[in-house]
Every structure is written in structure tokens, then in C-alpha cells.
Amino acid sequence: MAFSVRKSKKSSQRPAYLLEGFDRDALQLGKPNISEENFVLDEDESREMLKPRALEDAKVKELIECLTDWIHDELSDKHIIVRDILDDIYDGQVLAILTEKLARTKLDVPEIAQSVASQKERLRVVLDYVHRWLHPESGKNWSVEKVYSKNAISILQILVEISKQSQNPPKLPANVSMPVISVKMQDGRLAVNNFKEMITGFPQSDTNSGVQGRDVFDVLFEQTDEKLQVVKRSLTAFANKHLSKVNIEVYDIETQFHNGVNFIILTGLLEGYFVPFHKYYKTPSNEKEKIHNVSFALDLMEQNEELKIRVVPADVVSKDIKSTLRVLYHLFSLYKTID
């Protein structure tokens, strides 16, 4: 089915549009299995979905297996068997039991909840507590609707964060991400974007070998501020050398790269190509759009390189200067001789 847009029959005062599948070749999105579904999209409204076969990725399957085994170990005295991690977690029952054990608390939730309304209420209580307990990093949105609809990203992110509170945390595969397709109505046109949602981050250390997952910037931030300022000035000069070609001046690395736009433009300049505007948000208005931009920029940087950039997009968005410098230094190391 072709990718088409038409006005819906809703009130003319509130324009809406209908999304009827994707033109797979034109959009290069793989084969999203949504051809039988219609999405009504109002202006600035968006929809997201996992790319096909995302759950079949080897690292994702390994992560699910590790989390399933960990749940069995933690709840062995309850004789709970998880056969499908999405089907068995979404309603909040197992999540409540896990949370009560690891947080050493008692939640005011029913053990048996049969109706949709009672299951969602139980899930709401559990998620409210989990957010207060774990203080998840910015960009993670674990809503009742997402979890109850068996959103794989939300469920896996929650379990990964909760597992860190265990006395015997599982050794999970590092740097696991899942590919997402985002469709947003902007100025009466559909903007389709691809990005990766992080599930697990980079390893901080290997407890078995004692080898620390540190790099030059971890060491730099332990040195004098003078050395840090020298690096910041050098990377600022490098960025301005190229961004000045499109009349962009960088004077504050920390605030001028956090939404991803300048990273995307800089990468295009260095690689010698123009990045179409519909691929990213030119003026991102919220955190999710900024995370998309940073993720997209990292994808562009890594397309022709084997080296994985050790950065979590949400950290750049939250203006973590160490993460921002890591990305800039990656570009500098590759293109420092280019005029």
C-alpha cells in the first residue's frame, strides 16, 4: 500500500490527516507491518512504532533471556514462571511483586485484578512508585498506556533499571538499542524519522576483570579546569571552522549542541552532503525530539565508521558536557585535517 495523506472528515477547525501505510522503497523503512491500520494525525501529533523484527535482534533476544532468567531467580520462592516477557509483565502483577521485594516495600495493589480498569490502576500505582524510587534518566517515559499496550521499549527499560537494585544483578548485554519509526504531522505534511531507543547503556566496569570502562574524558575531568578549558576551546574552534560556512557560530558547546541540530549540520558539512530537513527536527520543541536528533546524528557519524561512540543520547540532551565533548572529539579525530 502506498504512503498517502488525506484530510479526515473531522471538524475543519482542527485539521487532521490519515496515514495509510508506508511507501517502503521511498522511505527506506524496511517493511513496517501497519498497512491494515489507519492513524489519524492532527497537526504536531506523532506516532511511534518499532521497526519490524526489532525483537528478533540477537542482542535484544539475549537481553530478554537474561532478564527472564533473573526474574525466575528473584521470584523463585513465588513459583512465578515468565514465558513471554511482554505478555507477563504488562498488567503490573509481576512488576508489583518484583518492586515490593527489591524496594522492601508493600504496595497498595490487589494481587488479583481481572478487569482492564483494575489492572491499569494497579499498574499506575506500581509505575508511580517506580518513578519515585528509581528517578529514571530524562527521556524515559514509562506511562501506563505504553506499558499496558505491551510497549517493548518501556517494559525492557523498566526491568533493566529495576534489575540494578538487585543484590545479584544480572550481567546484561551492553549498548542494546531498538530501532523506532516516528511519524509526525508538521505543517500539513508527514515527517517520517528513524531513531534508536537505548535499552541498556555502556558498561561502566567489568566486575570480573576489574577493568574500568574509562576513556580520555573520564581522566580529563579529574584534571585541572585549565586543561578542560583548553580542550573545549580547541573543539569549539574546530566546530566553528566548519559551521561558519553556513553562518553558525558556536560560543557555548554545552548549550548549542544539546538538541542535536548542530551535530547533524556539522556531520553533513564534514561528510560533504546535505541532510534533508524532513529527516530531523529543525526546531525541536521537546525532549523526545531532541533525543531523536542526537540519535540521528550519532547514526550519521557511525555509518562509515566501525568505532561506536560511547554516548547515550539522553545525556547530550541533558547538557552533560562530557558526553557532548566525546561526540565532538569523535568528529575532530576523523576530520581534523579537512579544510
UniProtKB/TrEMBL annotation:
Cellular compartment(s): Cytoplasm, Cytoskeleton
Superkingdom classification of source: Eukaryota
Family matches, as PROSITE patterns: CH
Keyword Ion transport assigned: no
Keywords tagged on the record: Actin-binding, Cell adhesion, Cytoplasm, Cytoskeleton, Repeat
Pfam families with a match to the protein in the record: CH
One annotated Gene Ontology cellular component of this protein: cytoplasm
Record protein name field: Calponin-homology (CH) domain-containing protein
Molecular function via GO: actin binding
InterPro entries linked to this entry: CH_dom (IPR001715), CH_dom_sf (IPR036872), Parvin (IPR028433)
Ion transport keyword on record: no
Family membership noted in the UniProt record: Belongs to the parvin family.
